[in-house]
Amino acid sequence: MSLEHSLASVRQRIEQAAKSAGRDPRSVTLLAVSKTFPAHDVAHAASLGQIDFGENYVQEAMDKIAALRPDWPALQWHFIGPLQSNKTRDVAAHFDWVHSIDRLKLAQRLNDQRPADRPPLQVCIQVNVDDEATKSGVRVEDAGALAAAVAALPRLRLRGLMCIPEARTGTSAQREPFARLRLLRDAMAAEHGLALDTLSMGMSADLEAAILEGATLVRVGSAIFGARSPRSP
Ligand SMILES: *Cc1c(COP(=O)(O)O)cnc(C)c1O
């Protein structure tokens, strides 16, 4: 399938799901996850009107951003992968969003390193909704305190919550963890007075379920760019 076709078909899926949820399709942002795919694929997607791109690996992303900025200065770059504290500087300097904040130290470093000539870095707290030992993300019970501390950092702008649930089959099973993230967001707004307008949830296999539960941003890779080959070390 051509990129043109697959991008159109993902946009169609988002529109359908939004309509079944009684939502305005424009309330859902499509984040095209371009990790492992070359800059020319990103440029092709950009030429088809795609603006937001997600990356997981710092060095790979730096190369792509440098290659694409001259021709595509308006693209929005989202860091969505696990982030080591010693790699925050490039992310603070070159990204527009970070979705994977799961500890205060990471947020503090990004805050300290965000260049003064750029607007505050937009961030989401990543929540380990299924309490999986192997997954990153803050525990559900610690999310409120972390969010309140992040919201106080002047060079960051806390936008909302992100999750990567365990794989589930079928829309109703897939909806369950997304519903919990939405309720957590509502509880945090009530308890900590935080205005969180973003729920970053849903990927190629479960974006419909996420949109039914209020996703405002879906992160879609393989359904747009095709299967990823395993990453070489
Ligand atoms: C790779 C990745 C995605 C995209 O996954 P697909 O199944 O290819 O759509 C979304 N979110 C995160 C955090 C990822 O690492």
Can you describe what's shown?
The protein is α/β, with parallel strands linked by helices and 233 residues long. The protein has one domain (3-225): Alanine racemase (TIM Barrel), CATH 3.20.20. Helix content is 41%, strand content 16%. The protein has helices spanning 3-20, 39-47, 58-68, 88-94, 104-113, 143-151, 171-192, 207-212, 222-225; strands spanning 29-33, 52-55, 76-79, 97-101, 121-126, 156-162, 198-200, 217-220. An eight-stranded parallel beta sheet has the order 7-6-5-4-3-2-1-8. α4 (88-94) packs across α5. It starts with a helix and ends in an 8-residue tail after the last helix. The model has no long low-confidence stretch (mean pLDDT 96). Pyridoxal-5'-phosphate binds at residues 33, 35, 56, 80-81, 164, 203-205, 219-223. Pyridoxal-5'-phosphate is lined by residues 33, 35, 56, 80-81, 164, 203-205, 219-223.
**How many structural domains does the protein architecture include?**
1
Number of helices: 9
List how many beta strands DSSP finds.
8
The span between the termini is: 28 Å
Based on the coordinates given, report the CATH architecture.
Answer: Alpha-Beta Barrel
Question: How is the main sheet built?
Answer: 8 strands, parallel
Would you list the SSEs in sequence order as H and E?
Answer: HEHEHEHEHEHEHEHEH
Instruction: Give the averaged pLDDT, no decimals.
Output: 96
What is the percent of helical residues? 40-55%
Q: Unreliable segments (pLDDT under 50, ≥5 consecutive)?
A: none
What is the CATH topology descriptor? TIM Barrel
Q: In order across it, which strands form the biggest sheet? A: 7-6-5-4-3-2-1-8
Helix-and-strand structural type? alpha/beta
Q: Per DSSP, what share of the residues sits in E-state strands of 2 or more residues? A: 15-25%
